[in-house]
Amino acid sequence: MKKRGLKAAWVLLDVTANFLIVFCCIIGMTHLSQAVEIPLQQDGKDNTILAHEILQSGGLLWRPVVEYSGFLLTVTTPHDSTFQQESAYPDLPYFPIVDSLTGTRPNGRYGYELVLLPPLTPTAEREFTSIRRSGDREAMAAFRNALDWPDPLPSQSGKFTLTDGVIALSEEGTVNSDDRDANAAFVPPADQVISDDLIINGSLCVGNDCYNGLAFGFDTIVLMENNLRIFFDDTSSIQNYPRNDWRIIINDSTDGGDNYFALQDATEVTNILTIEAGAPNHSLYVDSHGDVGVGTSSPYYELHIKDGDSPAIRLDQDGSYGWTPQKWDLCGNESNFFIRDATHASKLPFRILPNAPTDSLFIKEDGKIGLGTGSPLATLHLQTYSDPAFRLEKAGAENPHTWEMALEETHLLIREVLDTPKVPVKIKAGAPTGSLEITENGNIGLGTDLPQEKLHVEGNTYISGSLELGSSRQLKEKIQPLPSDLALAAIDRLKPVLYHYKREPRTAQAGFIAEDMPDLLKSKSGETVKPMDIIAVLTRVVQRQQQTIARLEQRMAILESSIQQESAD
Fold first, then answer.
1. pTM for the whole thing?
2. What residues does each domain of the chain span?
3. Kindly report the CA angle at 324 between 321 and 328, in degrees rounded to 5?
4. How many Å apart are CA 116 and CA 121, to the nearest integer?
């Protein structure tokens, strides 16, 4: 308890001292714009004391004991390299033991010089910084003379030793403001843990390259070093709790690498979002409605892509899952909207020109397709206010030809497109059902939807020309003469009648009844008659009758000759 009370008292004393120093500095800064004599302190060895050395975790801090507007700190390393830092009020001079480029600084003896800078206007401060960085000694001398700076400027110097990250102050240095032994080994640098909320009334710079006097502007947080990363480490340990880690990456860390902003899935080590440096304005924009703009800050719909030349979307199957690589582009410009096969010579299998009418192509929920209609009533429904037509065209140099199926007024046409079009098929409106029927076995019905033969005509047939029936020997087999007795028997059984077709009740017809026909003349269906068969039977009967007539005529001639002979005698 005694050690804790002593430590608490020491912390309270240190905080109080810091407050008083900062308060005094603030008060003093109000007079820096006037030419005042700066009271300087001396140690016991006649050394000027501008600031007390304060050992801190990770470095050495100088706390001013004089009014100041700024300091120039120069530290010489054991390898004769130089660390230089310019700080302006209210920042304090500070030397970190970790170099932002090389890491922990080398062990050895270090020397420093702390120079008190006179107050400067913002313009003069920028000029001073520029001259100092250029290393131009003559320009620096002229600058000092112009501002009537004292020569030399008030300064404080000292030494310290760095051993494995631990700073020890030299006897030649100035005294410590915390009354600790200057040669006492300091506790190794440790991380700072704040067990409470931390509120910063101002801006914050994080990184190895942060420096005093940084102009934050409107930036609240600045990350400054050559490898910028923010890591989100989810330490959840309970099963089924989300625990994925994430990282924000700024630029590659290798020579010649890329410049970008990336959001990384740190668990899987995959960059799921990358934005390259130099991307144009509004490359990706999400408005207050959740609409996403690509190239625009005024997205009109959920996704709005804007570009000066043919905005497009590419669909790229890269083959990583074993499927054949294929690229498709969805694109639009002043000429057309199109789908492009980017894999096969950039062919355009689908195009829509500007100002195409509404419902030029419409696909209904049941799969019906409308061309010119938004209410297709068939699998393919074509509707126009002129004569609609389908064109079938064979292009190319070899046998090019074109046919159309068209609706002309109220007629359906099949038209051969020539200089003088030909219409081999025309169907007029009002044609009855079954006007033309072709069955699955090739039977054609005219006036019937149930053709029983290759050509089945239900109704009268008019032929303006010859009717020829195939009767070649090449079409027949088992050919033999028709016996006369069969023909006579068939003729005897024929029953010619008069009748009226039910479809034409006013017209009398002469003919036969199919069901009454003799077996020799019956058709397969038993409902029709075969004119050629009747002709053959009649021909055979007539031939026999002619033979009988010939014999009778011969006998008549003999009888007439006998009668004439008897009359002569």
1. 0.53
2. 2-118+153-200, 228-352, 370-457, 483-551
3. 105
4. 16
Q: Per the structure block, which two tokens stand in for 66?
A: 């004089």
Peptide bond into 421 cis (omega under 30): no
User: How many CA atoms are closer than 13 Å to the CA of 37, on its beta-carbon side?
Assistant: 2
Torsion of CA 9, 15, 21, 27, to 10 degrees: -120
Residue listed under structure tokens 């990336």: 262
- At residue 275, φ and ψ (nearest 5 deg) are -120, 115
Alpha carbon distance 388, 532 (integer Å) = 46
Longest Cα separation, the chain: 205
- Asked if the 2-118+153-200 domain carries CATH number 2.60.40.3080, the reply is yes
Choose among 89, 87, 128: nearest CA to 210. 87
Tokens of 326: 């294929």
Look at residues 167, 138, 149 and name the one whose alpha carbon lies nearest to residue 75.
167
SS (H, E, C) 87-108: EECCCCCEEECEECCCEECCCE
Under a CB-based contact definition with an 8 Å cutoff, are residues 498 and 508 in contact?
yes
d(CA 154, CA 114) in angstroms, rounded, equals: 9
The structure tokens listed for 9 are: 């008292």
Is the preceding omega at residue 152 within 30 degrees of 0, hence cis? Answer: yes
- The amino acid sitting at 151 is D
- CB contact burial 333-365 (16+ within 10 A = b; e otherwise): eeeeebbbebeeeeeeeeeeeeeeeeeeebeee
User: Which strand ranges, in their side-by-side order, compose the sheet holding 411-416?
Assistant: 389-394, 401-408, 411-416, 422-427
**pLDDT digit string (tens) for the chain, length 569 residues:** 333 333 333 333 344 444 443 333 333 333 333 333 344 555 544 567 889 998 887 889 998 988 888 889 999 988 878 888 888 888 899 999 888 777 778 888 899 999 888 887 777 777 877 777 676 778 877 887 887 777 778 889 889 998 888 888 875 544 333 333 434 333 444 567 888 899 999 999 998 888 888 889 999 999 998 889 999 999 998 989 999 999 999 999 888 899 999 999 999 999 999 999 999 999 999 999 999 999 999 999 999 999 999 999 999 999 999 999 999 999 999 999 999 999 999 999 999 999 999 999 999 999 999 999 999 999 999 999 888 898 998 888 888 899 999 998 888 999 999 889 898 999 999 888 888 999 999 999 998 888 888 888 888 888 888 888 888 989 889 999 989 888 888 888 888 999 998 888 888 989 899 888 888 888 888 888 888 888 888 998 998 889 899 999 999 999 988 888 888 87
Question: Would you give the DSSP letter of residue 295?
Answer: S
C-alpha 190/C-alpha 264 separation (Å) is: 30
Beta strands in 369-518 (DSSP E): 369-371, 380-382, 389-394, 401-408, 411-416, 422-427, 437-438, 444-446, 455-457, 497-500, 508-511
